Known about the structure:
Elements: H1 2-12, H2 18-29, H3 37-56, H4 63-79, H5 81-93, H6 95-99, H7 101-104, H8 106-122, E1 123-129, E2 146-152, E3 155-160, H9 161-174, H10 178-207, E4 215-220, H11 224-255, H12 264-274, H13 285-294, H14 303-312, H15 324-334, H16 347-350, E5 358-363, H17 368-377, E6 388-390, H18 397-409, E7 416-420, H19 427-443, E8 451-457, H20 463-467, H21 480-490
Parallel strand pairs: 5-8, 6-7, 7-8
Antiparallel strand pairs: 1-2, 1-4, 2-3
Amino acid sequence: KQWYQRRVRGIKEIAENEKEMNTFIDLAETVEDAARSDRLSGLNQIIRAIKPLVFDVKSGDGYDKFKIAFNEMYDTVEESLSTITKKLKDVRDNLDWFKNIEGLQTDTTKRSISQVEELKQYGRFIIGCKEEKTDFFEERKIDDLMRAEIQNGEKCWKMKYEELKELNSNLVLIRVQQDHHHKVHNFIQVFSKLCQICDTFKKLNECGHESYQKWSHEFDYRDPEITFQEVEKLYTDMDSELKTFQEQLENKIKQCEPLTNFTLLQLLFLRRKLARFPQMSISDPIYHQTLMLLQAINPEISEEDLKKHIHSNSQDSSSNSMELDELGDILNRLTPNPTNRAGDIPELVTSTFQKGKVNLVKVNKRDIFRCVLSLFKATNRGPAAEEVLCCTPDTTEEQISVFLRRTIFIKNSQQISCLLCPEKLTYQLNKHFIEEYQRLTGAFNTRSSYLLVVVTEDNAASEIASTYIAETRQFSLADPTVIKDFTRTLR
């Protein structure tokens, strides 16, 4: 017991709690020296190992609590037994270097506090963009949507988003220091909320909300408390407006299946460009870009067909943008009648998977595509492009949203929607899939006959797999030779 108490006291001389210890690691990682990265990694692993015993057990806790914490620490150490001894030795041999880390941050702390003080006395934040975007396929970057201006007499300078982000990161690291806490906490709150406003502004743009195509707003930072209240109110109002506008759009998209083939940004592009398509020159790159986009619903579409259908609509030629209903009407007439497939999804499939739910299938990494092909082999047809979304690190929020809208809104009795490899998505995109699925199935009177299958690797971790673990299904894969013969018939 005495040995344990001495060791704990020694560690707590560096950090009183887990939060301070994590901050200590963050401070260490700001020291730009690649040769020391292994040392920091070692310290981080050791801290994670000892955390239950050092920070979770409090004075007065009984033996049972100590035993639980000890077992947690033992399990962590056992998992990395081959390396942790060397890392412990390395940390011991470099204690002087670790003791000097906080001193290395003195200049950064002074500079950051000085910048915050100047912002409080002479600064203002500016968010938004006064210029309307012309290329709707190029996403607005947050770098262009936020900046700060400081006006001190004749001296005036600007801080770009990246500079504000760096300042915020520095302030997060020094916030635990009590003598600076009150100076930096408000800035961190305001900056976080401004980032949320910029993200909401981007989404309102992509939805085609006319009021936000040209929009900017200024916040005087000389009274930080009032500034935070103003920022929080603006975010709440914009977020509410976004949700209302998105729901209106989704209701219209639900009524017109061809609209589900496009992202909201693409729909905005088509609304703008088709409004003046008849007047466009054939040499205009946008002319051909519009045609190529519409070929997603009809590969045979011609310029004459498109112009005929636009002219047949009673549209105001002076308008810069057509209504979504009007665009839906044009797309409906451009879309060829679907080839009706005989029957419904075979019982072999429906007996394994449940309609109107997320069905989770876990397979070996090399069997992911075999699983999908086995599923469609049971229906005697190959998968259509819109039925499969294979996730990669480059998959976007809008691709996931389009995939879910197609799954839930399209009334096709033989459609099977497959999401592959959710473990390759970021945590944020995993959460987006879950929240968007819940929103679309909860906010709208959706059919329950869609079939949605998520195929993931056996041992891969993802938020989607964790959320729908109760919906795991056992599915027998077709023999590889059968799959090979089946793929030949699809060519």
